[in-house]
Write a structure and sequence with these properties.
6 helices, globular, Rossmann fold, two-stranded antiparallel sheet, single chain, 9-stranded mixed β-sheet, alpha/beta
Length: 217
């Protein structure tokens, strides 16, 4: 199994299907991921919103047409000592007291007001507020993926993990925000992504110098 990217600061990217790659990897300290929710954000929705907010062509593909199979989600969660899953409310996750809430501060739009993150961290419910609505975004962080999460929010979730993980895995890597967050916090990380376009974007992000896109909080 040859990595797509394996060049810097303990970060590795595999281009492929996580169902095929995961069995070849050892267990990690933390799985931190944002799987498809099955709500069509990869196609028509993001195209219309992109015209209103910023000139980004995310393409018209079907990876978010249906949710990930539950058996795959179960395998993903079990691959880490700890796990945190954006959009865990779209799946049959185990009971947990440790849900995290990202308040997008969207105002009155067709976007959801919040996103939920399931975890098995064993802590109480936590909330973070970070505006992420088209051009109305905190900081200057660029977007390269229709369901990309803010770096600040991903780092926040990572920091809540009780065991200070040294190895982080994202089986639905997208544009690589989890890997960038891990790199900035000095963690090793592995990303798996089915779309080669996003493997390349993630590799470019990781190869650049670390910029602070979290200013103006």
């Amino acid at each position: 199994m040859t990595p797509y990217y394996d060049e810097h600061a303990g970060i590795t990217i595999y281009h492929g299907d996580c169902r095929e790659v995961l069995p070849q990897l050892g267990k990690v300290d933390l799985v931190l991921t944002d799987p498809p929710y099955g709500i069509g954000e990869a196609a028509g929705k993001n195209a219309s919103r992109g015209k209103m907010s910023q000139p980004v062509d995310y393409g018209n593909v079907g990876w978010d047409d249906v949710p990930v199979e539950q058996i795959t989600m179960d395998a993903v969660v079990q691959h880490g000592e700890y796990a945190a899953v954006f959009g865990g409310n779209y799946y049959a996750m185990p009971p947990s007291s440790s849900w995290f809430v990202w308040d997008k501060e969207n105002g009155e739009t067709d976007f959801a007001d919040c996103e939920l993150v399931w975890s098995n961290f064993g802590c109480a419910v936590r909330i973070i507020r970070h505006q992420w609505n088209g051009m109305l975004r905190v900081g200057r962080e660029p977007r390269a993926h229709p369901t990309q999460k803010p770096l600040r929010v991903v780092q926040w979730v990572l920091s809540l993990c009780p065991a200070a993980p040294t190895t982080v895995l994202d089986p639905f890597m997208g544009s690589g925000t989890t890997l960038v967050a891990a790199k900035q916090l000095g963690r090793r990380a592995i990303g798996i992504e089915l779309e080669e376009r996003y493997c390349e974007i993630a590799a470019q992000r990781l190869s650049q110098e670390v910029f602070n896109f979290q200013g103006d909080m």
